[in-house]
Amino acid sequence: MLKLAVLISGGGSNLKALIEATSDPEFPAEIVCVGADTAAAGLAYAEAAGIPSFVVRPADHANRAEWGAALAAGIQNHGADLVVSAGLMRILPAGFVSEFSPRLINTHPALLPLFPGAHAVRDALAAGATETGVTVHIIDEGVDTGPVLRQAVVAVRAGEAEADLHERIKQEERPLLVRTVREIADGTLDLAAVAGAAAGAAAADLA
């Protein structure tokens, strides 16, 4: 059984989807803890499900590295095998990434490598994209630069507002994340192999 730590900052819709999935005894993963960087509304889902949770606020630490170390300690206390950034709205410090990657994944509301960063949906609309979507990827030390695991495409409707498009992306994001976690848990998706292949390709490009 794969043990998950889920990190959030807000309402926790992805967390809710994972809690619902892992409540099925046939699902090959369980959530052992939920961490947040603030008193996020989504922590209520963890409380309702009886899942341990903790809050590590950046303001309570001298710098990002210390915050990352405290966040990592909270996860390690629960023995998690995979860390899922499911709406954590902060860039994780390098020390945290090196501690957990490649067993550290994130969702992003675009078809990476297109439209990285905090305003992916807005950027896709500004570029006149006719389609965008969602990506589940391994977190590395860059911003939305880690190896892509799975993607789902969402068509952009003419004249669509950013909020409406983002909501439709979220409707694809939740099942894609659940499916990706299942594939990691059952061995269909090998994170170490994906990361190794990406590193090899990057090295070949530099040669």
UniProtKB/TrEMBL annotation:
It comes from the Bacteria. Keywords: Purine biosynthesis, Transferase. Belongs to the GART family. Residues 3-181 form the Formyl transferase N-terminal domain. HAMAP family: PurN. (6R)-10-formyltetrahydrofolate binds at residues 64, 89-92, 106. The gene is purN. PANTHER family: PHOSPHORIBOSYLGLYCINAMIDE FORMYLTRANSFERASE. The keyword Metal-binding does not apply. GO terms for cellular component: cytosol. NCBIfam families: PurN. One of its GO terms (biological process) is 'de novo' IMP biosynthetic process. The active site is at residue 108. It catalyses: N(1)-(5-phospho-beta-D-ribosyl)glycinamide + (6R)-10-formyltetrahydrofolate = N(2)-formyl-N(1)-(5-phospho-beta-D-ribosyl)glycinamide + (6S)-5,6,7,8-tetrahydrofolate + H(+). Catalyzes the transfer of a formyl group from 10-formyltetrahydrofolate to 5-phospho-ribosyl-glycinamide (GAR), producing 5-phospho-ribosyl-N-formylglycinamide (FGAR) and tetrahydrofolate. N(1)-(5-phospho-beta-D-ribosyl)glycinamide binds at residues 12-14. GO terms for molecular function: phosphoribosylglycinamide formyltransferase activity. SUPFAM superfamilies: Formyltransferase (SSF53328). This is Phosphoribosylglycinamide formyltransferase. Its EC number is 2.1.2.2. The keyword Signal does not apply. Pathway: Purine metabolism; IMP biosynthesis via de novo pathway; N(2)-formyl-N(1)-(5-phospho-D-ribosyl)glycinamide from N(1)-(5-phospho-D-ribosyl)glycinamide (10-formyl THF route): step 1/1. The record marks 144 as: Raises pKa of active site His.
